[in-house]
Amino acid sequence: MRDLFIFDMGGVMAESCPVLPRAAAALGVGEAELLGLVREDFDAITEGRLGTEEFWRRFSARTGLAARENYWATLFAPRADPAMAALARALRSRGRVVCGTNTIDVHYAYHLEQGQYGCFDAVYASHLMGLSKPRPEFWLSILEAEGRGPERALFVDDLAENVEAARELGIDGRLFRGAEPLIRELEAEYGLELAARPGH
Predict the structure, then answer these.
(1) What are the domain boundaries of the chain?
(2) Is the Cβ–Cβ distance between 193 and 187 less than 8 Å?
(3) Residue 98 forms beta bridges with which residues?
(4) Where does the pLDDT of residue 151 fall: very low under 50, low under 70, confident under 90, or very high at 90 and above?
(5) In sequence order, which ranges of the chain are alpha helices (DSSP H)?
């Protein structure tokens, strides 16, 4: 029986909060153009090799576009899904429940300040680990820290690429298609009862 439950944060435990379209509007460029411009340093902030303040300084110097604020911070305010938090808390009676998330410094700080990691036993954040999904080392690092083999882990993410990478390691990867179907699945598999679903 699996007893390590790994959940992604954005798009699973909390709503997606795309910063790029609003940052593009603020900078006066198209979203596709901005995506191309930020791609160069995005892995660096996701894996903690570069802070987001320095990211925008470098961006302005490189592109000539004046980034007047840290858009990753000022345009980011996702709401957590109370039904998913209730699921995570219920699963803690069956094992360890952790967050495995690709994130950046200011997004991590936001979720922390809002108490959105409070339903987890531990949080594995890419910018602190120096590793990001879909690199296999991301999950291997979590498994080692938790003292479990892949056959004991279940992983939920809203990106198929990440789910497939986890499955290749022998982890039970589930593609997130909404809270209600996932809750029904896991209630049946793990004998949970979440009859009162917050927010549903």
Answers:
(1) 4-15+78-190, 20-74
(2) yes
(3) 6, 122
(4) very high
(5) 20-27, 31-46, 52-63, 71-74, 82-91, 105-113, 126-129, 136-146, 160-168, 179-190
The phi and psi torsions of 125 (rounded to 5 degrees) equal -105, 130
Joined tokens for residue 82: 């109370």
**Nearest to residue 50, comparing CAs of 115, 110, 135, 130?**
130
Q: What angle do CA 127, 128, 131 make, to 5 degrees?
A: 65
Per-residue model confidence as pLDDT tens digits over 14-31:
999 999 999 999 999 999
Q: Is 109 helix (H, G, I), strand (E, B) or coil?
A: helix
pLDDT (average), residues 127-156: 98
Q: How many CB atoms lie within 10 A of CB 39?
A: 9
Judged against a pLDDT cut of 80, whether residue 128 lies above it is answered with yes
Query: If DSSP codes are grouped into helix, strand and coil, which group holds residue 196?
Result: coil
For domain 4-15+78-190, the question of CATH label 1.10.3730.10 is answered with: no
pLDDT at 195: 53
Residue 151: strand, helix, or coil: helix
